[in-house]
Write a structure and sequence with these properties.
Layout lengths: L2 E3 L7 E3 L5 E4 L2 E6 L6 E6 H14 L5 E3 L12 E2 L14 E5 L3 E4 L18 E12 L17 H5 L10 E19 L2 E13 L5 H19 L4 E2 L4 E2 L2 E12 L2 E9 L1
Parallel strand pairs: 6-7
Antiparallel strand pairs: 1-2, 3-4, 5-16, 6-8, 8-10, 9-10, 10-11, 11-12, 12-13, 14-15, 15-16
């Protein structure tokens, strides 16, 4: 098998991985999937869904966000965020956001999408999740003329850093469809892959102007949450060799595909 040097003198020589090939347009011509690269790697959408499920299950703080009335402090289960400040509202408006673990479909499309996102574009990934949004409508400051405040608030005894008052959340849940692209990034200085959300769509949500406002808010929240799920490519190795990607990730054939060099 032919070999090629990794770089300067004295470095180990790595066996060149035989290029994968496939039939193109029904012809018998072999076309290399690696081109001039050493190795081709493909992650099927089923494997991507497994990885995302494991990532968010062990790091639920990237799916659950709340101000201090809901989340006393950031833990593995949830992330504490700031209240929404507004003049005349003591302590601000407390709120909470929860995302379900998203389900992924890599081009070509096999998961149903709303008309605004259908069909799934080339080199794109679709996701679907559910988002719960809660706002605390309780009183954050005790009022002497409010008989409900006569009872002690046990929650503040357990968590003195939380604001006093009764927690009275009002919530709703909505399904969200998402279009994203895959891109290379780094994690602790090493190559990695993540999904960047481009568009979202809410289904059967009226009136339309309110839907547009909510989509704007949820797009920012979902984009930030999904971007936290970073797949380190140093996990992809063959013995002492590690993939350094130079091509991709390409979203096609129900896979995220990369090609690159094998390095020691």
């Amino acid at each position: 098998m032919p070999t090629r040097p990794l770089g300067g003198a004295g470095q180990r020589r790595v066996p060149r991985v035989a290029p994968w090939s496939k039939q193109v347009q029904g012809k018998a011509n072999d076309v290399s999937l690696t081109g001039s690269e050493d190795v081709f790697v493909a992650l099927h959408e089923d494997g991507l869904n497994d990885l995302l499920s494991r990532f968010f299950t062990t790091r639920a703080r990237y799916l659950n966000y709340g101000s201090s009335a809901f989340v006393a402090s950031t833990t593995a289960a949830a992330t504490r965020i700031d209240v929404i400040s507004f003049p005349g509202i003591p302590g601000g408006i407390h709120w909470f956001v929860r995302l379900e673990i998203p389900r992924v479909d890599v081009h070509p499309q096999s998961m149903g999408l709303p008309p605004e996102l259908d069909p799934l574009g080339v080199q794109r990934v679709s996701l679907v999740t559910k988002v719960s949004l809660c706002v605390d409508c309780g009183e954050r400051e005790r009022q002497p003329d409010n008989p409900r405040d006569d009872k002690p608030d046990d929650r503040t005894h357990d968590h003195p850093d939380r604001p006093a008052g009764k927690l009275d959340p009002v919530c709703f849940e909505i399904e969200v469809f998402i279009i994203a692209r895959a891109e290379r990034t780094t994690l602790n200085g090493k190559p990695a892959v993540r999904l960047i959300v481009e568009r979202i769509e809410l289904v059967d949500f009226e009136p339309d102007p309110f839907e547009s406002v909510l989509e704007c808010i949820l797009l920012k929240i979902i984009r930030a949450a999904i971007a936290q799920a970073v797949l380190p490519l140093d996990a992809i190795s063959a013995g002492t060799f590690t993939l350094t990607p130079n091509v991709g990730p390409n979203a096609q054939d129900d896979q995220l595909q990369l090609a690159g060099a094998l390095t020691v």
